[in-house]
Amino acid sequence: MKTFTAMTLSGAFALTAAVSIANADDDIREMKTLSEGLGLISLEEASAKALEAKPGVIEDADLEDRDFKKGWDYEFEIVDADGNEWEVYIDAKTGEVGKIEKDWF
To answer: Based on the number of CB atoms within 10 Å of its own CB, is 27 exposed (0-12), middle (13-18) or buried (19 or more)?
Structure first.
């Protein structure tokens, strides 16, 4: 019974990981479709600008619709060499770095 439970749990974890990877691929496809349709800079261009502003490793990327200012931002979560997490915002139309904030949690 313990073996069956362990196999079931490991299968559940593997399925969760596979779904997360599939969702990440869907997010990237959705960002690409949105950016092309709206005439925004590409995810690759925005990633390069974010890493230029805050060197490290990108852990997550989102394309966000700004509520009040009208327009779109790429939001990147970047981990630097010291293990600090940062949020870097790139204007999706112009490619300008919007703001850089340290994530404190």
So the answer is: middle
